[in-house]
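Section 3.1: Structural characterization of target chains.
Under the original work plan, the team committed to producing a structural model for every single-chain target entering the pipeline before any wet-lab resources were allocated. The record below documents one such target. The sequence was received from the expression subgroup and is listed exactly as submitted; it comprises 99 residues.
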Amino acid sequence: MATLNIDLQEGFTKDEIRIEVNGREVYHNSCATTQLLVGLADSARVPVPDGPTTIKIAVPSRGLSRTEAIQATGDTYLGISIDGRGLQTHTSGTPFGYA
């Protein structure tokens, strides 16, 4: 079993966000806001089976959505941000650092 560590990072301002993993909703926040000094709005830890994992991210308050396919093994880290290009994601095998 792997752990998907989800961090809502830059660009959230009172945004609704929903996250599904392998078709099951695992996270919902109706008012996510990035703490500017830290660069983090919220975090969640989700157990997932090792192997291919599909993540659907929706930010209905901005009409944004994105689906990502990742290989989950051990601890997997997913950073989610909003910028001028839309919804952005970044995966890592190590935790993200925050101020």
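The chain has a mean pLDDT of 95.
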